[in-house]
Amino acid sequence: MKTRKRSRPKHAYKVNVWAGISYKGKTPICIFTGIMNTARYQQILESNLLPFVRHRGRFLGGFRLYQDDDSKHTSRSTKTSSKEKPCRI
């Protein structure tokens, strides 16, 4: 009797996770699939980070967002949109 090999997907299923923490608490965890681009990154900040900052009120010494130098984080579009927001990037 032959044993049947289980087929495997060519590429593993991948998910991305975005979240933030501070001394005032944590943001909602954002889990998504697909490709991250500048527009999606800005949408994640808009729908997850900004409500957190607004809800928590003033941060002692201001609020600062730390991130790596990925092109989505440093794009002209992201920098321009962040100037209108309550955080420094």
Automatic annotation (TrEMBL):
Region annotation (Disordered) ranges: 67-89
GO molecular function list: nucleic acid binding
Name assigned to this protein: Transposable element Tcb2 transposase
Native source species: Magallana gigas
